[in-house]
């Protein structure tokens, strides 16, 4: 995913993200896109434990935005919302429908995660927090991110086993939550805005590859201390409700 050949291939399929819309002042703003997700604490709330990692992510985002590719190509996400998604849960119309048909949906969702986290911690999972190292930039059809790789087999198994506990939970499945994507660990830096017809795609791919080469000597590591059930209204802010359960890895 971080090779020039991957960029050249993927860059032919870029699409404007529907999660942001143009406004008269020409600044794109996040549109309503509500739901729930299982993530690490956003960077703005994790400064004490991963401040160096997220500081690097902010630096990388700034370098990305300085590329001479047009001001509206990449819509940056707020740096204090950077996070690792551990499991996508439910969003947009599926979330709205679930909430409309089941007034107790959110209470039941939180109850499910209390049970999942308790069972996970009671299991044989290692107690050391997982560590994931940045590998380089990756392109998705509607977003650009840095991808992460596990620093050990143990770190990989911890996250995969937690995802398995989530997606195989019968009560959660009964709420309409099912696995939609395979796990590709990443931190989203921005979404794609206007894809102009005159975009020099080959040049863009080369610039991304050059950034990777520049960063390769200083690849930071994210330590996953916590997994939290978070609610979002759009793609710029993820908040934890007071009663939402938390999984602490390094107990």
Q: Say what the CATH topology is.
A: Cyclic Phosphodiesterase, Chain: A
Listing every helix as H and every strand as E from the N terminus to the C terminus, the arrangement reads HEEEHEEHHEEHHEHEEEE
Number of helices: 7
Q: What is the CATH level 1 assignment? A: Alpha Beta
3D structure, described in words:
The structure is a single chain. Strand 1 and strand 2 (29-30) form a beta hairpin. Helices cover 35% and strands 24% of the residues. Strands 3, 5, 10, 11 and 12 form a five-stranded antiparallel sheet that branches. It has a five-stranded antiparallel sheet with strand order 4-8-7-6-9. A two-stranded antiparallel ribbon has the order 1-2. The radius of gyration is 19 Å and the shape is globular. It is an alpha+beta fold. The chain has a single domain (4-245), classed as Cyclic Phosphodiesterase, Chain: A. The protein has seven helices and twelve strands. The mean pLDDT is 92. It starts with a helix and ends with a strand.
Topology:
Layout lengths: L3 H7 L9 E2 L7 E2 L4 E5 L7 H19 L8 E3 L8 E7 H10 L3 H18 L8 E9 L3 E8 L2 H15 L2 H5 L11 E7 L8 H15 L5 E3 L2 E9 L2 E3 L6 E3 L3
Antiparallel strand pairs: 1-2, 3-5, 3-10, 4-8, 6-7, 6-9, 7-8, 10-11, 10-12
Name a few traits of the molecule:
251 residues; alpha+beta; Cyclic Phosphodiesterase, Chain: A; 5-stranded antiparallel sheet; 7 helices; globular
């Amino acid at each position: 995913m971080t090779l020039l050949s991957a960029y050249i291939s993927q860059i032919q399929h870029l699409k404007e993200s529907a999660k942001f819309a143009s406004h008269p002042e020409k600044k794109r703003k996040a549109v309503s896109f509500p739901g729930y997700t299982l993530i690490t604490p956003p960077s703005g709330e994790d400064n004490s434990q991963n401040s160096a990692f997220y500081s690097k992510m902010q630096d990388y985002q700034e370098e990305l935005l300085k590329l001479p590719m047009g001001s509206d190509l990449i819509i940056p996400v707020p740096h204090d919302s950077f996070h690792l998604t551990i499991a996508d849960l439910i969003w947009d119309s599926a979330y709205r429908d679930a909430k409309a048909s089941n007034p107790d949906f959110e209470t039941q969702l939180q109850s499910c995660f209390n049970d999942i986290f308790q069972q996970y911690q009671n299991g044989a999972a290692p107690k050391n927090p997982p560590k994931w190292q940045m590998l380089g930039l990756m392109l998705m059809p509607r977003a650009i991110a840095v991808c992460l790789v596990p620093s050990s087999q143990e770190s990989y198994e911890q996250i995969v086993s937690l995802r398995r506990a989530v997606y195989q939970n019968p009560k959660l499945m009964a709420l309409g939550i099912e696995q939609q994507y395979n796990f590709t660990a990443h931190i989203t830096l921005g979404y794609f805005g206007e894809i102009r017809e005159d975009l020099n795609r080959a040049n863009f791919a080369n610039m991304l590859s050059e950034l990777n080469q520049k960063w390769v000597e200083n690849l930071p590591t994210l330590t996953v201390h916590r997994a939290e059930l978070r609610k979002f209204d759009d793609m710029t802010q993820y908040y934890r409700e007071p009663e939402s359960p938390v999984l602490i890895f390094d107990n």
